[in-house]
Description:
three-stranded antiparallel sheet; Alpha-Beta Plaits; 3 helices; single chain
Amino acid sequence: MLGAIQNMSRDWVIEKLSIGVTYDTDLEKARKIVKKVGEELAQDPELAPGILKPLKLQGVQSFGDYAIQLRMKMMTKPGDVQFLARRRALALIKKAFDANGIKFAYPTVQLAGGGMPSASEGGALGAAIAQKGLELVKPAASGGA
Length: 145
């Protein structure tokens, strides 16, 4: 029978964070902001004893369809402090990026077309669609009643 397992072989964890920013982001500015956030976390009396190496931006993780993925890491003691430090770091990064004009990326869809149909084209198209809809829902004529 196997019970609870705990890894007692190390006294630290590396907390990795990844965020997506828009392609117009000044990466050097983002690096400086993340460094300041790391320093702020390391000065927090609640977190400081558990942070072994402060948060730092490792660099660009990847170029995605709509975002540049930035990778960050910090070393903490294992346990609750790692999760608290992660949550606080993300909240501070959000606040600092907003204050400095750095935008988080999210998927968007752009549609392109030949323009809107004219009133006569749109009207004819709408009428044809409506007629087809009526034909689909009209009950079949019964043979003898």
